[in-house]
Amino acid sequence: MKILKSISILMLIFIAMSCKKDDIKIEKPNELDGLKLVQSIQNDPFIIDLYTTSGKLEQGYNEIFFTVKDVEGNLIENVESTWSPLMHMMDKNHACPYSPISLVPNSKTLHKGYIVFQMAGNETEYWDLSFNLIVQESPYTVSGKINVLPTLKKRVTTFTGSDGKKYVLAMVQPNLPKEGLNEMTALLYKMENMMMFSPVSNYTINIDPRMPSMGNHSSPNNVNLTQKSSLFYEGKVAFSMTGYWKINLQVLNESSEVLKGEAVTDENESSSIYFEVEF
Length: 279
Ligand SMILES: [Cu+2]
Prior knowledge:
Blueprint: H1 2-26, E1 36-43, E2 46-52, E3 57-58, E4 60-70, E5 79-88, E6 93-94, E7 102-103, E8 111-117, E9 126-135, E10 138-146, E11 148-149, E12 156-160, E13 166-173, E14 180-191, E15 197-199, E16 204-210, E17 223-227, E18 233-239, E19 244-252, E20 258-260, E21 274-278
Parallel strand pairs: 3-11
Antiparallel strand pairs: 1-2, 2-4, 4-8, 5-6, 5-9, 7-8, 9-10, 12-13, 13-14, 14-15, 14-18, 16-19, 17-18, 19-20, 19-21
This protein binds copper (II) ion.
Copper (II) ion binds at residues 87, 89, 94, 119.
């Protein structure tokens, strides 16, 4: 009897231990911490899981992460990939600005890049995202519809400059605006044609944040956006109080000629291009 008891205790311990082992196995890898699944795109034999920090794709700038797995759920390493977003509109198709894809540092399976959706999808018009993968020297395509949501505040603007060229300008930071001085970054792309957008270098983006609800007052210590060491235009935006702010913009080319946007004055309350922030 005593022996039977000890055997069953041993078995219980064994079961408990093996359960624990299973728990560890199904635990998500740490590199996904802080990311939420947006959706999975499946075309046999692969599934791509798309992640963002918010769990959604929105009009404007999106930093996007993804993994590639097989139908059994095994993550695939050594994947070479490119992507191409395409919007299907009533009368035309067009692409948008996007980055190349890179592996997240210290990861073998988590890839990242960004896409700037200049428009949101709607009931009849939608975006799809195609991936071209090379896995063990064989090419594969995985593509599917994605849901790009509209935003309440303006984070991206499209305009034709005085040079006759079309541009897409997107706010990247501040993502979580706070009272005081905020790092501000933006991306500027030129539309070469409906399918090709190329990053623009050596322009300047002048910013003039205003509070329309309070006499259109400004804020001190703003720094206009210029390129420092990357594609991103960097500067500083000051919000002297919480509430709704309109960041009026002017885009200047490398010769400091204004291509788009107007200075805010007593007579002119707003520029024709701007971003919006509310916090
Ligand atoms: Cu469109």
